[in-house]
Amino acid sequence: MNLFKKEEKKVEYLELIYDLIFVYMVGRNNALIHNIQNGFVEPKFFIGYVLCTLAIIQIWNFSTLYINMFGRNSIRDHVFLFINMYLLYFVGQSTGSDWQAFQTQYYIAWGLILLNIGIQFLIELRNHRMSEWNKEFIKRMSTVLFVEAGLVFIAAFLSPIPGAWVTAAAILSGILLTTVFSKQKSIGGWIDFAHLTERAMLYVVLTFGEMIIAVASYFNGDGGLSWNTIYFSLMAFLIVVGLFLSYGIFYDHLIDRDGQYDGMLYMGIHVFIIFSMNNITASLEFMREPEIAVMPKMLFLLASFAGYFIFLFCLQGHIRNRDKLTRPICARAGVLTVIFVVLMILLRENMYINIFLSVVYVFAVFLIIYRTRAEIIG
Q1: Paired residues of 268 in beta bridges
Q2: Do 69 and 10 meet the contact criterion of CB atoms below 8 Å apart?
Q3: What backbone torsions phi and psi does residue 144 show, to the nearest 5 degrees?
Q4: Strand partners, 40
Q5: 3-class SS at 191?
Q6: pLDDT per residue over 279-301, tens digit each?
Q7: How much is the CA Rg of the chain, to the nearest whole Å?
Q8: Half-sphere exposure of 33 toward its Cβ, with a 13 Å CA cutoff?
Q9: Element (H, E) at 40
Q10: Which residues pair with 41 in a beta bridge?
Q11: Which range has the worst mean pLDDT, 26-30, 72-76, 139-143?
């Protein structure tokens, strides 16, 4: 019996409202990669897209971690959340092809958001005088947030190229330091892993919502019965369905939501799952753009698919009977991915075959995951 076990935290409606603004941010970030030059996205905009997307997901990650551990659905929590939502609008409005003109605004708003979350952690110190682990954790997390905020404020006053390097350093510092802290497990069980998994799932669902919107363009026709429209829209729809079902198997049947985990690694993996999903959404839009060269958009699509499933399988440390997700299972998925990549590159000029192969690949990996579920839960 776990004497420290708390009542499971429920996801509050304000958390869902807070998550909705991140849907808006995804759309703003995706606008960066619609600046085409020489058959693909201009490098500076692609780098900006990567950094901005990771920064936004990381903000959500830090906020979710605080709410999970110390949130009480109090007036103070609500005020801090609304402040962050307000600041996120400044970040979103600064994101676009004229990003450099709004660079200072972007970084200052981002830095203030990090400070906001860091201050929330520090305020909690007074409530945990009797818990050495929580006091130490709060001090470390606030340090991570203040250090990253400091780097972000520095980047606000640099020229674009040095600013991009400092931005990358800020994001990486947050990822690496929180990963290190994930090795420090809480004896008191302050992290509610079930709540954490639900919050991550809801963000994934919202990201799938963006993907569904992107797929809607495949349904555009001339108003008549076009078999071409029917074929490509069906294939695109099935891709989204297969990706969704794969995550659903992990969340509903494989993830050990009642287990004792620190949760930080789980959230870190979800940063890259969601990032890969954003890339898949952009890739599906690119595949319909004739001005984008075939090979660059094909490689982007392949990397996005591979990233999604690689990080999905990285959740194996949080599944029931984790030894059941064996190396042969991962190896089969890996071999399937290699075959898929080779065939897609060889047949890259034939979009009819390429999108069909994408559907076959997505559902083939889904079947591997489904069979794993059958083995684990019997």
Answers
A1: none
A2: no
A3: -55, -45
A4: 37
A5: coil
A6: 999 999 888 888 888 898 899 99
A7: 21
A8: 27
A9: strand 40-41
A10: 36
A11: 26-30
Say if residue 181's pLDDT is above 90. no
Report how far residue 217's alpha carbon sits from residue 293's, in angstroms, rounded to the nearest whole number: 19
Query: In the structure, how many helices (H) and strands (E) does the chain have?
Result: 12, 2
Does residue 291 sit in helix, strand or coil? Answer: coil
Rounded Cα gap, residues 310 and 240, in angstroms: 17
Q: Is 188 exposed, middle or buried (0-12, 13-18, 19+ CB in 10 A)?
A: middle
Residue by residue, DSSP assigns 85-153 as HHHHHHHHHT-STTGGGGHHHHHHHHHHHHHHHHHHHHHGGGG-TT-HHHHHHHHHHHHHHHHHHHHHH
Best CA proximity match to 180, nearest among 98, 104, 264: 264
Tally of residues, the chain: 378
Quote the tokens at residue 181: 């802290």
Amino acid at 289: E
- For the chain, give percent helix, strand, coil, nearest 5: 80, 0, 20
| 202-260 confidence digits (pLDDT tens) | 999 999 988 998 888 888 766 556 788 889 999 999 999 999 999 999 998 888 888 77
- Which residues are bridge partners to 36 per DSSP? 41
Distance (Å, rounded) from C-alpha 55 to C-alpha 94?
Answer: 14
Q: What six digits make up the tokens of 10?
A: 């429920």
Q: What is the pLDDT of residue 188?
A: 46
Q: What angle do CA 60, 62, 67 make, to 5 degrees?
A: 90
Q: What is the pLDDT of residue 2?
A: 42
Neighbours of 129 (CB within 10 A): 9
Q: What are phi and psi of 40, to 5 degrees?
A: -155, 180
pLDDT above 70 coverage of the chain, percent? 90
3-class DSSP state for residue 263?
A: coil
